[in-house]
Design brief:
about 750 residues, binds guanosine-5'-diphosphate, seven-stranded mixed β-sheet, binds magnesium ion, alpha/beta
Length: about 750
């Protein structure tokens, strides 16, 4: 006789196998693959039984060698009984495989393992109820302690002698009539395991359709008449959904809940809150908001509410309110660079070309980039703490649950989250995705996640506009860019899934690490690497580019020194500035400066502020009233506020600013990222498609942002109503998708704890 042990990874198969077979165990290889094949003999029954430890699997689908090995073994070598090990502490996830094993005609017995851990935690499982529902013998065991093993083997031995007919949970629900018909097709052809094959054929399983092409055709015409609703013809999804609904419906009450809670580890308890079905995303958004508040707020902890106007005014620390740590560091750095800049320009003769080059070009440009280093470091400090503590892994999990129907899986979110730091490693990390369509899609979304180099743009505009328009808030301006990026990525993903890069999103199973205290050393190493990267870029690309830009803005084609407007760049940029007038930021007599800045940003995003810095250094603008008295902050600020201008009697500077930021957020991130994308997309044609995609998205979204902003200026009420309607429509759509699909599927992705 021959018994097979089947179950999820870490369910205790090997432990049980060792307990049953002792010294007879033999380890070999499955033919053709590097998966261990463990066999041994159990001698305590009337006849000797060969025991085979199948590889750990979550499903009998054909995606991994483990799944194929297990599936073929059960179907082709026909063990006399399959012992399905179910980890009782993860009951619902484990039963997903059980529902598939029960579709074969092989006798099955269930070994409910880890019952010692459950009862230690005061939990109890209703195994009689489970047995009744599943229709196969269930035994509570502990593989580790050796409890009830001989009972289990007796039951298996008995079951092995009785014929069994497989049956499937999909015989109920929307596929029931199709299932009955396909089942009959197999039966008429005298094929064993009819239920299993029928389900696989309905799922359009690759191995199955290849093996029975004629039946596949008949089944195809049957399934084509089924309305799969939100699944849009994804029959594998429909079947998975039916399985989970069945499991949830029948078994969710089997374990005494109150007692189960005590069995949860500390991490699990934290996860109940942080990865909560409803609160998970709001909590994530709140955490990010808190991080931005710490980095960008000029009203730290809203202390300004309690400080009387005019009573608190300390340079760097704040006026009428306390600055957040990020802003304090920024001010300190800004003061330092301004002091150095002043000292240098004071020591140089006025009006010469080399004074212009050094002060207006080089220092002005490079310093405006460097002064954001402290804020970047503060932001990355928090991101690295979130990463190191294990929270970022949860974010992938939460986002997966919410967005997988949009074609984004949690696995893809891991590289995308890296893009918050820099798109280059993020794009390279897409290699971890096995599915090619998903990989390409993810690469194309990478730039939408706001990277560190874009931060200076948000911080500079946020700071200046919050200062000039008291109804704006720097933290929220920066925050809105991150959220806009994620939102565009989700929508774009949906679009890509339907058009350019078609393909299904594979199931996502990830291991959630335990939460732990962030390590000081890890954090420092991480920060140092970021800093190094940023300074290196400032010292090389940015310095070089700033000098070129200074040259092009200071001279005309005859190499005479002229005002910026008549310079080489000034003239050239006017040829295509009109293209950006509809986006707002191309408007006005300084519009061309922003167009140039956005274009230099395609080379490297730090260049945007660097370029504006050069323009600020060259232009003779007055200092921004009431702002800090530093040379760079003020003249840079004056240039920034000149964005947009007026439409009739409406001041459109603020909409133009948001439009400009959106354009920089979504357009080609930088040349390094393009090179990385080229490597991953494989081929010039794909890369050009990606570039076009980024530029068109940037243009379209900026256009929408600007005109929505203008609309908002005209009528706050009407604009708010429209926005509320759009948001409500999106939420309704998301809820519908969620209700129909994601809620049921999410069980697959439940955290699988490492050992
Ligand atoms: P496999 O991946 O299915 O082969 O699982 P293993 O046999 O390697 O077991 C995974 C982990 O679960 C190991 O740390 C085992 O010690 C533990 N384990 C297995 N069976 C039991 C059990 O009955 N009770 C408890 N508490 N732990 C168990
Ligand atoms: Mg094992």
């Amino acid at each position: 006789m021959k018994f097979a042990l089947a179950g999820n990874p870490n369910s205790g198969k090997t432990t049980l196998f060792n307990a049953l077979t002792g010294s007879t165990a033999h380890v070999g290889n499955w033919p053709g693959v590097t998966v261990d094949k463990r066999t041994g003999t159990y001698k305590k029954l009337d006849e000797k039984v060969e025991i085979v430890d199948l590889p750990g699997i979550y499903s009998l689908s054909p995606y991994t060698p483990e799944e194929i090995v297990s599936r073929n073994f059960i179907l082709d070598e026909k063990p006399d009984c399959v012992i399905n090990i179910v980890d009782v502490t993860n009951l619902e996830r484990n039963l997903y495989l059980t529902t598939q094993l029960l579709e074969t005609d092989t006798p099955v017995v269930i070994a409910l393992n880890m019952t010692d851990a459950l009862s230690k935690a005061g939990g109890r499982v209703d195994s009689a109820g489970l047995e009744k529902e599943l229709g196969v013998p269930v035994t509570e065991i502990s593989a580790l302690k050796g409890t009830n093993l001989s009972e289990l083997m007796d039951k298996a031995y008995k079951a092995a002698k009785i014929d069994r007919k497989g049956s499937s949970v999909i015989k109920n629900g929307i596929l029931s009539s199709v299932y009955d018909k396909v089942y009959k097709l197999y039966e008429q052809n005298g094929i064993a395991d009819a239920a299993f094959h029928a389900v696989k054929l309905i799922e359009k399983d690759e191995l199955e359709t290849k093996k029975y092409p004629d039946l596949a055709e008949e089944a195809g015409s049957l399934t084509s008449e089924v309305d799969t609703g939100l699944f849009e013809g994804d029959f594998e999804g429909v079947v998975a959904d039916l399985r989970y609904k069945y499991i949830e419906h029948k078994f969710s009450g089997l374990i005494k809940k109150a007692e189960q809670e005590r069995a949860l580890s500390k991490s699990d308890r934290i996860d109940r809150i942080l990865t909560h079905k409803v609160w998970g995303i709001p909590i994530f958004l709140a955490i990010m908001l808190a991080v931005f508040h710490l980095t960008f707020s000029e009203n730290f902890l809203l202390l300004g509410l309690f400080i009387k106007e005019g009573t608190f005014d300390i340079p760097i620390l704040g006026t009428d309110a306390l600055n957040s740590p990020g802003v304090i560091l920024f001010n300190a750095m800004d003061w330092l660079t301004a002091t150095i800049g002043d000292a240098v320009s004071g020591a140089m003769p006025e009006g010469t070309w080399y004074t212009g080059l050094i002060c207006d070009g080089l220092l002005s440009g490079v310093f405006s980039v460097l002064s954001f280093i402290p804020q970047i470091l503060v932001l990355f400090l928090f991101l690295s703490i979130l990463e190191d503590s294990g929270y970022m892994a949860r974010v992938a999990f939460i986002l997966d649950r919410a967005f997988r129907k949009f074609g984004l899986s949690g696995k893809a979110f891991m590289p995308l989250i890296m893009c918050f730091g820099c798109a280059v490693p993020g794009i390279m990390a897409t290699r971890t995705l096995e599915n090619e369509a998903e990989r390409k899609r993810t690469v194309m979304l990478a730039p939408f996640f706001s990277c560190g180099a874009k931060l200076p743009i948000w911080a500079a505009f946020g700071g200046v506009f919050a200062l000039a328009y008291t109804n704006l808030n720097a933290t929220l301006i920066v925050y809105s860019m991150y959220i806009l990026g994620i939102a565009v990525a989700v929508l774009a993903s949906l679009l890509l899934k339907k058009t350019v890069v078609k393909g299904e999103t594979p199931p996502f199973i990830m291991e959630l690490p335990e939460y732990r205290m962030p390590q000081f050393k890890n954090t420092m190493i991480y920060l140092w690497q970021k800093l190094k990267h940023y300074i290196f870029r400032a010292a090389t690309i940015i310095t070089g580019a700033v000098i070129v830009i200074w040259f092009l803005t200071s001279f005309n084609f005859r190499l005479q020194m002229v005002d910026a407007e008549f310079s080489i760049i000034g003239i050239i940029s006017k040829w295509f500035t009109w293209l950006f007038v509809p986006l707002g930021f191309g408007m006005g007599d300084k519009g061309w400066m922003f167009v140039v800045a956005a274009f230099t940003g395609l080379i490297a995003k730090e260049m945007v502020v660097g370029t504006l810095g050069v323009f600020a250094g060259i232009s003779e603008d007055e200092a921004l009233e009431g702002s800090a008295d530093y040379l760079f902050a003020s003249s840079l600020g004056a240039v920034m506020l000149a964005i947009g201008g007026t439409l009739g009697d409406i001041d459109v500077s603020v909409p133009a600013m948001f439009s400009f930021m959106a354009f920089n957020l979504l357009s080609v991130p930088c040349m390094a990222a393009v090179a990385a994308a080229n490597g991953e997309l494989g081929g010039k044609k794909n890369t050009l498609t990606a570039i076009a995609f980024w530029m068109i998205t940037a243009y379209a979204v900026s256009l929408a942002v600007f005109w929505y902003g203008v609309f908002f200026k005209v009528s706050v009420v009407a604009a708010s109503v429209v926005l509320a309607l759009i948001v409500a429509a999106l939420i309704t759509l998301a809820v519908l998708k969620y209700k129909g699909v994601i809620g049921a599927k999410s069980a697959v992705k439940q955290s699988i704890k490492g050992e």
